[in-house]
Amino acid sequence: MGLHEPVTANDFERRRANRLRTLNTVAELTGFTRVRDVSGQGLLGVLTQQGLTQAEVEDACRYLEAEGLIEGKKSVWNSYIPRDVLLTHHGLKEIELSLSKPDEPTQYFPPALTVVNIHGHNIGSPIQAASPGASQVTSVYGLDLGKVREVVDAYESAAGEIDLPAEEAAALRADMLTVRAQIESPRPDQQTIRRHLLSARTIAENAAGGFAGSAALAGLLELLQHLRF
């Protein structure tokens, strides 16, 4: 868009979508925690694969940092993208809210279902959401989404009884929120689903190996271990 060209409604919506893509990517690359950061160059590489330009990534980073959703060290490579990017507590809460209610907009972003992974590797047959006669995607390259849904439902029913340290509990919750958003999407991404299921299983296995844990955690681990992904 040129310097003197008017900003259209489509331009505005694309910028809002780019901000969500950027925050979601930061969250995924940092494992939905605040204990790890991601390099600005790595973030740019992932987002350009999703169809964003460097200027769009810079614009999104400036906005997210100004709103306190990310923190960044000053760039040293001639870019407005921070050298290292860290998810803030406010940013973590915002992306969790967006993914937990993917069909609803948030204060900052449009509905996640209309944005997340649109430019990624969406594997599976797209459907027309909320249209007459539309059918639900039930499998993605051998991944049984019905079984995945059972795991997420079981987690959500027992989340309050799962005994984990705060950091592991937050990471597990973020994994399940991401999986829920994907299985509700008309274009589920099998790579994202598998990555977060594996992360959730690892958290549950490590916790079960370290202490007795709770019956709820043991039940979730059993479901994850029997799920083929």
What can you see in these coordinates?
By secondary structure, the chain is mainly α. It has two domains: 120 residues, Winged helix-like DNA-binding domain superfamily/Winged helix DNA-binding domain (Arc Repressor Mutant, subunit A), CATH 1.10.10.10; 106 residues, no CATH class. Helix content is 53%, strand content 6%. The strands form two sheets. Strands 1-3-2 form a three-stranded antiparallel beta sheet. It has a two-stranded antiparallel sheet with strand order 4-5. β4 and β5 form a beta hairpin. α1 packs across α3 and α7 crosses α8. The protein is globular and about 55 Å long. The termini are far apart.
* Number of β-strand runs: 5
Instruction: Report the portion of residues in β strands.
Output: 5-15%
| N-to-C order of helices and strands | HEHHEEHEEHHHH
**What's the N-to-C terminus distance?**
43 Å
Please tell me the CATH architecture of the largest domain by its name: Orthogonal Bundle
Kindly report the name of the CATH homologous superfamily of the largest domain: Winged helix-like DNA-binding domain superfamily/Winged helix DNA-binding domain
Mass-distribution shape: globular
Major beta sheet, specifics?
3 strands, antiparallel
Average pLDDT for all residues: 79
The first-level CATH class name of the largest domain = Mainly Alpha
What radius of gyration results from the CA coordinates? 18 Å
Oligomer: single chain
Helix/strand class:
mainly alpha
List descriptors:
globular; two-stranded antiparallel ribbon; single chain; Arc Repressor Mutant, subunit A; 229 residues; mainly alpha; 5 strands; 8 helices
